[in-house]
């Protein structure tokens, strides 16, 4: 854990080092992934059964056995404990409401020249959703990735999840059922991405693939990009907590640890105007690390990437936060909205002393798939926009063409594109423009 | 040019071949580009002067000489012929109006549980715009890339354009002035992308880079992706024209050639319900190729990639168009809106017999940077959304937390993330949840 104070010499260099910190270690798996993709393209279904036996240690009888039946999916919700079922339903309902409110309006305007122009939103036909298996099989991620697609109007949502040794987390299947996933396949790794991108006979290809995965999955998404759309490749998660001394230190400590427990590469940063409060939080972190089940991971993250930054005032905190452009931002001060108004770059903000990030991870409504590693400067969290696309359109009659056509002819000629110019000029009645 | 008829044996195979046609030849320049990026990162300004001398054959006195002064930019509009100036101003005004109408609304909602959630749009701070030099220096592309950024509220738009042998197209500079570009640099190739992504001392880094370029520029954008945002890598351009026999064949022929004259890899497809009309269009294409200045390019495109598809009815045409998901779509039939309503996938549509694509390339208002190579299935044209990002937010008080917190605790426990659960439970008053 690093301790920085804005007033001290060397602060700028230390803060810049924090910004430049590379928390991600990328394994180079390009060639292995290219081989798997080529095999899936060449052999289709047969490749999937073989690769599943090799990587997931169970052998499907045939390609049909890779698909979980619609009945199994529908039954999944009823098969889990009532409390978990209720919580998943609460989460699904709230996420759906928030994403439905995002749906954009079409545009249709006619201007003084008589030219009618517009923009029409439409859903992608088919989306593939990758869900990691094993430890990191999070039902909340299924809801967060699938519900925006369903709300956008995507008709076909094909989910792939590896089932190592044949085992599948029933909560993941229940989340898929609640989120309206239309197909679930027991396929993992690069072969799942290849199957979704190119199709295999049994599994029809999709148009866009979303969802987190390991290095093989991420590289496979990179390699099929262009053939299909992909979401951005998520890096390790991070939180910045802005908190004054009026907070309970143990609350803030647990917020920092909630981030740290994800991953050794996660990053938790406290920015406070009170060094004493900062010290109290550090002490509470140490206390909590004694009993947390995932203390080993959380401690590794906190020691390597954690930081406490003591600022002279909140304006300094805002400036530093904008440079960090954090994935998650908690604002726990007296007038949190004033600070939020001044923050330009953050993936998601949690406003007030009673609003820990974990609320947003599960049930608040906004998406928990968010831009990491300072990319909130230019990127956004997952939303219905990821599953919609726009078609712009122009409608012109002879009068409208006469009004704006000559300018098009002039510019086409200036660019040396004569067929462009002629396509307009011929319609204006100029045979030899 | 291929001639296909839906009723004939072998149609499906021939159409599928058209869909699978790879028109793009990618040059592998990974290593060369990685070297240039490393040099720019290591040497900053000094690398730029050296690389410019090497690739663009002129030697800047120093890094400051790479920048075109604000006065030069401002003066550029006055220095071009009045007709071109007027046409550029018309285009800029119309593009600005259309993109301003796209600006989305923020979201702010409070639900029955007392949880307030929202979504806030904000502009990216700084955008880099790459503009190719030489033949392909198109002022219209400057307008189409820079104006959406300015409308979105981007404060800093840094444009890089190579000036081979020191030469710069004055129209490109005029377009930059009209579009509100704030900096123009005489830098090209992979070194420009590296400079924009990492900064060089003189040139400060940006957050996102857009604009077309050659294989080196495209590969450099791939390599800096993550550090900054990038737009999609455009492939060769294409048009599908739906036209019945009531059209003038020479209009349609010129529309097809306007696409073909861009690039040998461009593709022009006519879909018609009249074989006789298709034959008339083919004859008019041959006629026009005798006198078009760019006939060599247009002919190469038409011969290799052009196609006429004769359909039995317009429902067939719609189905085929959706499979093609074309970048540009002209709809020249009696009730064009009926067909447009049934088209799910197209980058931009041009509706009616008086609405050639060239209108949209220059002055109609919608963007001419569009998804190519069937990616309109999942991707969209450039828009203000490319220069905005979203911050979602949640605000909860103690009562709101009490309403939805327990569900979060349940899900966090189910996922084995105890610090997540504790961060909520502690605030609910459960010391040992």
Describe, in plain words, how this protein is organized in 3D.
The structure is a homodimer of 433-residue chains. The first copy, chain A, is an alpha/beta fold and 433 residues long. Chain A folds into three domains: 30-106 and 123-230, Nitrogenase molybdenum iron protein domain (Rossmann fold), CATH 3.40.50.1980; 235-378, Nitrogenase molybdenum iron protein domain (Rossmann fold, 3-Layer(aba) Sandwich), CATH 3.40.50.1980; 396-425, no CATH class. Chain A is built from 17 helices and 15 strands. The first copy, chain A, has helices at 11-20, 30-43, 45-56, 70-76, 82-100, 139-152, 170-179, 189-198, 215-224, 249-260, 275-289, 295-305, 314-324, 336-342, 357-362, 398-414, 418-425, and strands spanning 2-5, 67-68, 107-110, 116-123, 126-130, 156-160, 183-185, 208-210, 229-230, 238-243, 267-272, 307-310, 328-332, 348-351, 388-395. In chain A, the strands form three sheets. Chain A has a six-stranded parallel sheet, sandwiched between helices. In chain A, helix 2 packs across helix 9. The radius of gyration of chain A is 26 Å and the shape is globular. The mean pLDDT of chain A is 94. Chains A and B meet through helix 5, strand 4, helix 10, strand 14 and helix 15 of A and helix 5, strand 4, helix 10, strand 14 and helix 15 of B. Strand 15 (388-395) of chain A pairs parallel with strand 14 of chain B. Chains A, B: InterPro entries: Ald_DH/histidinol_DH, Histidinol_DH_CS, Histidinol_DH_monofunct, Hstdl_DH. Chains A, B: NAD(+) binds at residues 130, 191, 214. Chains A, B: This is Histidinol dehydrogenase. Chains A, B: It catalyses: L-histidinol + 2 NAD(+) + H2O = L-histidine + 2 NADH + 3 H(+). Chains A, B: Belongs to the histidinol dehydrogenase family.
